[in-house]
Amino acid sequence: MKLSKVFTAVALSASLFYGAAHAAGACPNDGVVRFGVEPYESAQRMLPVYTDLAKMIGDKLGCTVQLYVATSYNAEIEAMRNDKLEFGQFGPLGYVLAHQVAHAEAVATFAGEHGKPATYYASIVTWPGSGIKTLADTNGRSFAYADPASTSGHLFPAYGLSKNGIDPDKGIKAIYAGSHTASFEALRNHKVDAGELNSEEIASAKLHNEYDPAAYVTLWQSEPIPLDPLAVRGDLPEDFKARLASVLSSLDLHQLPEADQKFLASNENPELRTVPQTDAAYNQIRDLVSTLHIDLAKL
Q: What residue range is the signal peptide (predicted)?
């Protein structure tokens, strides 16, 4: 299933401006630096947290930061390609495409243990009583993916199915729920027989007391996946790009309100800090794209 060709990013809070307004020479785009975020969680949960994060980045950068939460993964990519974003947080697969078509450059990511870039995993799960005992049993059954452009919500589960002899498009009755949260809810409410469930969504559900390990059966789990990068638009002025990269790669998220810290904290992000990241860290995603013969431009 292909994404709609409507890629317009939606500003859920267009009036959220933060940071000190400096001269245009210090901050591009008439002093406004636009920060895009993918819809990896419900907007109701994300908006307060990223509002505060935008303010913190703006204060450290000395620029006004405007927050945009996109309607889809590709909406954020399209916004950067059309010079409507200076930086953004992308999913790993979304980043590979953004690097390819929108000149996005990974400069930072969230820290894991020992100050190293954090990782997470994708999995395929079912629920007791579904009649599914092994991955092979998902053949012909309803299956929830998150978003077609999602790394852990589509690409890795499709890879897992393919490696086990199941056509990830035709061998199952695929449903694109729209987000990891929506996929989880479909599983939790038994609306589908099986589906994707990544470790970040599990951590988020635990924080909201919505996850019972006994309610799910893991059929397959991926190798570690690099966490979402914070990426800057490659054609920004070099001096500003370097300053922005420095800020993004050294954020102390403990400075955010406690509620925000709880949202951002997980098994994959225990340090509540950001660290430098490079484009090369996502080469394994590119390998998967090649293995699955995925044309990123058609996602």
A: 1-23
